[in-house]
Amino acid sequence: MSLGDGTVGSIAPNEDMARTVHPILAYPKDIDPTLGGEGGEFGPPLRSNFRSAAYLLHHPPRSLNILAEEIEVTFAAEEQPGNRARYLLAEIASMFTPRTVVVTGASAGVGRAVAVAFAKKGWNVGLIARGIKGLEGARREVESAGGHALVLPLDVADADAVFRAADQVASHWGGIDVWVNDAMVTIFAPVKDIKPDEFRRVTEVTYLGQVHGTMAALKHMRPRNQGTIVQVGSALSYRAIPLQSAYCGAKFAVRGFTDALRSELRHERSRIRLTMVQLPAVNTPQFDWARSRMARKLQPVPPIFQPEAIAAEIVRAAIDAPRELWIGTSALKAILGGMLLPLLGDRILASKGYSGQMTTEIAPANRRDNLFEPVPTDPGAHGRFD
Fold first, then answer.
1. Residue 172 belongs to what H/E stretch?
2. Does the pTM exceed 0.85?
């Protein structure tokens, strides 16, 4: 059972639980436990089929997916859409149902590790990616970790497919609590060697894929006025580097889109939360199947983090929902350095930005890449930098 704060346990519901385990359920002794009364902290008096939070904990509703019409809350005074009582009842209901997350880019790398990390907490996990073999491998890992998986093979560049997948998840599990946008593709090459259709493809997946995922998530979160959307970004959302112009442009765009949407949600007084996680270099299969026109094998710019460490921070961001989360001192230095000393950054990257992204090994000729089609393998979360 999820306790609503990301922890998982098997505690039997009782009144003590309402006061100690889940702080939002506690009410002061001098407040009428019917969630109203004169001067109540929950706003104007109201009538409810449920006498108190404790009552509901002792007597779970027949349907674990509580709808507003089932609760039949009626305000004695003028209706207040943002009243805390509605939020409290929704929080109680969520304690009796497994929580659901959708992860895009779930077949490999960080997305794969994120899916497994949520599964270890008992979540239902919707798995979105193109590669069938990778998705099946992710499904097995999720189920072995204690979660439930729903495999959704699709390309996030296809907005209609993303919306259908969200509908399927919501129908299957009763809603979507968290949506993690992680799918990406890239190409390593100087701008002069990248074709227009390659720029378009990176943009459609890495930027528009996150837009499509966000829109699909909002469609299901808005009616409940709750949920969390996590945008997986990068230090390269702030400091662009050579050889990755298409990817950096897409990540900058994601950050701009996210900032605009965040302001809109605040304007609407929405309870939907939006967070962006800026990643450092991570050991993923990306560097073996990204399209490249470089003569040597690719590598992330050190220091290199393992996917599981990054996944733990993404799960934390989904639970705590900070405005942004910058992971690692290397990301911090890149972001702040780009803000404070951009010209110095330009010079350093002009000198070391090429060699820092390649090893000394010769790249194999005619290797397959995943820019337009998935590579039919199951590499798991890790790349070759263990």
1. helix 159-173
2. no
